[in-house]
Amino acid sequence: MNPRHHPTEDLLLDYATGALAEAPSLLIATHLTYCSACRGEVKRLEAVGGALVEQLPATAVTTSLDSLFARLDEPAPAESAPPPVQPGYEWAPVPLRPYLPQVPWRSFLPGMTQIPLGAEGGSLRILRVQAGRAMPKHTHNGRELTAVLKGGFSDGGKDYFPGDLAIAGDDDLHTPTAHDDGECICLYLIEGRLKLPGWLGLLLNRFIPH
Ligand SMILES: [Zn+2]
Is the previous residue joined to 24 through a cis bond, with omega within 30 degrees of 0? Predict the structure, then answer.
């Protein structure tokens, strides 16, 4: 099934031009492994970027051409095969495999375990959520990006399945809930801090590493 929830045009443009940090780039790269439409769009944006470089003043082009020719003199790196998938991590798409398994599953919130991933640009983790389990209602400082890897969840009347990218803004108070028919595994990024209102939030905000 093709994904139905896609990155915004701005996110794809930032990805194509290399302006995105490592953590959000991983979210986009994960979505692209599922979505041929967005892969095509990234190719188109990269071609537009290449055409713009050709229109730069000659001095800027000369400098970049010099460095390009310098690089062409170096031997080309061997085409490397994607890292093999580790047993038990078959849900991990190619862009995530170099990060796995760094650490074992750790507890996160009731009914949820996590693998924190070290990537620059926010709190990035893989979350495994039991069937039917909801995140406590929360908001965050900064954008929240979620890519489904296995199973599915619902949030704000929408359903998300493998390959779908869910984007929440920093004032969205929401309660994503795993579907009832099985566990949900997703790649989950908060670019700022998670904020859990109420006593549970007071308790957990002290213990959840940010
Ligand atoms: Zn897409």
Answer: no
Taking the centre of ligand 1 as the mean of its atom positions, its distance from the CA of residue 43, in whole angstroms, is 13
Q: Is 30 helix (H, G, I), strand (E, B) or coil?
A: helix
CA of 38 to the centre of ligand 1 (A): 4
Q: Which residues surround ligand 1, an ion (CB under 5 A)?
A: 6, 35, 38
Q: How many angstroms is it from 40 CA to the middle of ligand 1?
A: 9
Q: Which of 168, 58, 186 is nearest to 113 (CA)?
A: 186
CATH code where residue 175 lies? 2.60.120.10
Strands (DSSP E) contained in 67-143 are 106-107, 112-117, 123-129, 139-140
State the residue range of the domain holding 139: 1-210
Say how many Å lie between the CA of residue 6 and the centre of ligand 1. Answer: 4
Closest alpha carbon to 30 in 96, 83, 80: 96
CA of 34 to the centre of ligand 1 (A): 8
What domain count does the chain have? Answer: 1
What are the pLDDT tens digits along the chain (210 aa)? 789 999 999 999 999 999 999 999 999 999 999 999 999 999 999 888 777 767 766 655 455 545 544 544 555 555 677 777 888 899 999 999 888 876 789 998 889 999 999 889 999 999 999 999 998 777 777 889 999 999 999 998 999 999 999 998 877 778 899 999 999 999 999 887 666 665 555 555 555 544
31 CA → ligand 1 middle, Å? 6
